[in-house]
Each structure stands twice: as C-alpha cells, then as structure tokens.
Amino acid sequence: MKILIDNGHGENTPGKRSPDGRFLEFKFNREIANRIVADLRDRGYDAELLVEEDDDVPLAERCRRANAYSQALGKQNVILVSIHANAFGNGREWTKARGWSIYTSKGQTRADLLADDLAKAAMKYLGSKAVRGDFADGDIDYEEGFYILKHTISPAVLTENLFFTNEDDLKFLESGAGKQAIVDLHVEGIIEYLNR
Q1: Which residues lie closer than 8 Å to 92 by C-beta, 6 or more apart?
Q2: What is the tens place of the pLDDT at every residue in 73-124?
Q3: Taking phi first (over 0 means left), then psi (-120 to 50 degrees means alpha), and beta for anything else, what does residue 79 get?
Q4: Distance (Å, rounded) from C-alpha 193 to C-alpha 185?
Q5: Which phi-psi region, left, alpha or beta, contains residue 6 (left: φ > 0; alpha: ψ -120 to 50)?
Q6: How far lies 18's CA from each of 82, 92, 100, in Å?
Q7: In angstroms, rounded to a whole number, what is the distance separating the alpha carbons of residues 196 and 118?
Q8: pTM to 2 decimals?
Q9: Which of 78, 76, 139 has its CA nearest to residue 107?
Q10: Do residues 29 and 84 make contact, with C-beta atoms less than 8 angstroms apart?
Q11: At residue 70, does pLDDT exceed 90?
C-alpha cells in the first residue's frame, strides 16, 4: 500500500498564521508530514510526501500526482492523508473555536473507514473532548467537497489538527508533546486502517 502524506499549503499561501504571526501553518504541516512519513517508513511502510516543494503546489497538481500513483498501482492500493491546522475568525484576533476534525468527500466511501480509524486514534492521543465530529450520517467525519478529496480517485482524508487561532490549542501544537501526539495519532490511525 502506498501512503501519500499531503502537507497542505506553502510558504507563499496568504494568511494561514496565528493572530500574533508566530505560527505559520505551512511550516507546521511540513514538519508533521515529514515526521509521519519517517515514522511509517521506520515501521516498514511505503510512505512518502506528496509535495516536496515549499511553494504552494496547486490543488490540481496535487491531485494529478496522487492519481498517477493510483493509476499505476491501483486505486485500492493508495491512500492520501492531507495534513492541516485549522483557523477561525478574521485572522487578527484569538478565538474560542478549538479541536481536531477530519474530512472526507461526500457519500460513503473507503475514506470513511480511514477517517474512523484516524478519529479513534485522535481520541486516544488528544482526548475525546478535543475531537470534533459530524454524526449526521452515522460517522464522525465532516463531508465536504474539498478539491483534494473530491478529485483524488483513491481514499483520501483531510485532517484539521486543532486551531492555531485558539491560544490553548496553539500552545499544544507548538509543544514537543503536542507535535508528537499529532504524529502518533496519524501513524496509528493509518496502520489501523491498513490492518482492516
């Protein structure tokens, strides 16, 4: 199984920073994505970054890259996990919105199973109160028409790893323990899915 880790955004993406400017989402996403890939490889899994560049690679190109693997290996032999951190408000003020969440494309697909396994791992590493969900269709993931999810032919999910516009979430995201928890939940959730 080929595991593609997509580190969302790039250094040239406008905004995507904490209200005080010290947290840059693209840097966080890349650090976490690199650590997830390294951990999975250390365990013998075939994992790699979808985007090596620091610039913000367009979503159409990200999907093209992911789909090239799916066409070569078979869409059942590839998964994609897109790493993000969340924001709320106008970008200049701290907000109360907080928590971890996961997104899939609309409808029931194998991505829902991957989302379930990642959400279970998130509850383990972050605590159930820190995990946000939409249970309208019987599972925890939010269903959205995000381009990366809608146009990737293999199972694809997008994680929003807490809010960098919330001071408490941000302290956790910047801490060594917080970063490790985010890495661990992704690695454990992915492996759980692969062992289904």
Answers
A1: 19
A2: 999 999 999 999 999 999 999 999 999 999 999 999 999 999 999 999 999 9
A3: beta
A4: 12
A5: beta
A6: 20, 8, 17
A7: 13
A8: 0.96
A9: 139
A10: yes
A11: yes
What DSSP state is assigned to residue 101? Answer: E
Distance from C-alpha of 35 to C-alpha of 96, rounded to nearest angstrom: 29
- The two tokens of residue 51 are 């985007």
Domains and CATH numbers, the chain: 2-194 (3.40.630.40)
Decide if 8 contacts 52 (C-beta within 8 A): no
User: Where are the alpha helices (H) located in the chain, listed in sequence order?
Assistant: 25-42, 59-73, 110-126, 147-150, 167-174, 176-194
What dihedral angle (degrees, nearest 10) is formed by the CA atoms of 174, 121, 84, 173?
Answer: -10
d(CA 31, CA 60): 23
The edge-to-edge listing of strands for the beta sheet with 101-104 is 46-49, 2-7, 78-86, 156-163, 101-104, 142-143
The position carrying tokens 């899994």 is 45
